[in-house]
Amino acid sequence: MGWPFARTALVGVLSLAGASFAMAEGAEEFQRHCALCHGLDGTGHGPLAEAMKAVPTDLTLLTARNKGEFPSTRVADVIRNGGGVLGHGSSAMLAWGNYFGEKGNPKVGKERIAELVGYIKSLQQK
User: Fold this and answer.
1) Which of 25, 57, 66, 85 is buried most deeply by CB count within 10 Å?
2) What whole-number distance in Å separates Cα of residue 44 and Cα of residue 122?
3) Residues sharing a CB contact under 8 Å with residue 16, sequence separation 6 or more, in sequence order
4) pLDDT attached to residue 65
C-alpha cells in the first residue's frame, strides 16, 4: 500500500470534503434565500407562502415530476432567470442570477447556483 494507494485515498477524502463543503454552502444559500417561500424542508410551506398569490413549488418532488430524473439544468435556469422565464408556473419566483454575482463575477455566481442545485437535489423524496 504505497504512495499510489495513499494518493488515491487522499484524493477521495478531499473530494468528499469538497462535496460536503458544497452541500453545506448550498444548504446555507437555501436557508438564506429560498426557505422563506419554499420552507426549510423545500415542500413549499415557508413562512411567506400563505401571503403569496401562487403556491411555491414543492421542491422535494422535482425528480418525481420529471420521470425519475432530477432536472438540474432547468432548476439552475429557474434560479438564475426567475420563474416566469421558463414557465415555472409564476413570475413570483425571483431571478437570483444577478444577485449571486453572475454579472459581476460569473464564476462565483455559477458556483453558488450549482451548490444550491446540489442541495435541492438532496431534498428529493426517495
Assistant:
1) 57
2) 16
3) none
4) 95
SS in 3 state form for the chain?
Answer: CCHHHHHHHHHHHHHHHHHHHHHHHHHHHHHHHCHHHHCCCCCCCCCCHHHCCCCCCCHHHCCHHHCCCCCHHHHHHHHHHCCHHHCCCCCCCCCCCCCCCCCCCHHHHHHHHHHHHHHHHHCCCC
Say which CATH topology domain 3-122 has. Answer: Cytochrome Bc1 Complex; Chain D, domain 2 (1.10.760)
CA distance 14 to 121: 21
CA distance 65 to 60: 10
The pTM assigned to this predicted structure is 0.77
Domain range annotation of the chain: 3-122
Tens digit of each residue's pLDDT (9 = 90 or more) over 37-81? 999 999 999 999 888 888 899 999 999 999 999 999 999 999 998
CA distance linking residue 117 with residue 30, whole number of Å? 9
Residues recorded for the chain: 126
Assign 104 to helix, strand or coil.
coil
